[in-house]
Design goal:
The chain has a single domain, classed as 2,3-Dihydroxybiphenyl 1,2-Dioxygenase, domain 1, CATH 3.10.180. The chain is built from three helices and nine strands. Strands 1, 2, 3, 4, 5, 6, 7, 8 and 9 form a nine-stranded mixed sheet that branches.
């Protein structure tokens, strides 16, 4: 069901410093920051030949990333994102097999302007999984 690894998301306490680290120290192509108010984050994408790294920074006090950074002040891996061909079919199959879809279970538009869903980390070895329709 899952396809390509779309990205690994890393929560960061300082988006500018993290962007500079990937751009200047590691020599990667780094996007400009993009606010995602519906998700409570600002994102920067680090382009790699085979995937992306998504740097996440809180946007607003209700940001889920603020809570993550409160527990992990240095930042860290927040989630991994896999592509699926049909997000509704994937959701229905996963739910039928007992996996928990976070939120109301309906896809939202993600940072790539495509439908996304998140799966409960307790169902996937402690890892928050994002599914993105390819």
């Amino acid at each position: 069901m899952i396809g390509r690894l779309n990205h690994v998301a890393i929560a960061v306490p300082d988006l500018e410093a993290a962007s500079a680290l990937y751009r200047d120290t590691l020599g990667a192509k780094v996007s400009d920051p993009v606010p995602q108010p519906d998700h409570g984050v600002t994102v920067v994408f680090v382009e790699l030949p085979n995937t992306k790294v998504e740097l996440l920074h809180p946007l607003g006090e209700a940001s889920p990333i603020a809570g993550f950074l409160a527990k992990n002040a240095s930042g860290g891996i927040h989630h991994i994102c896999y592509e699926v061909e049909d997000i509704l079919a994937a959701r229905d199959k996963l739910k039928a097999e007992g996996a928990r879809v976070l939120g109301d279970g309906e896809p939202k538009i993600g940072a790539h302007d495509k439908p996304v869903l998140f799966l409960h980390p307790k169902d996937f070895n402690g890892t928050l999984i994002e599914l993105e329709q390819a």
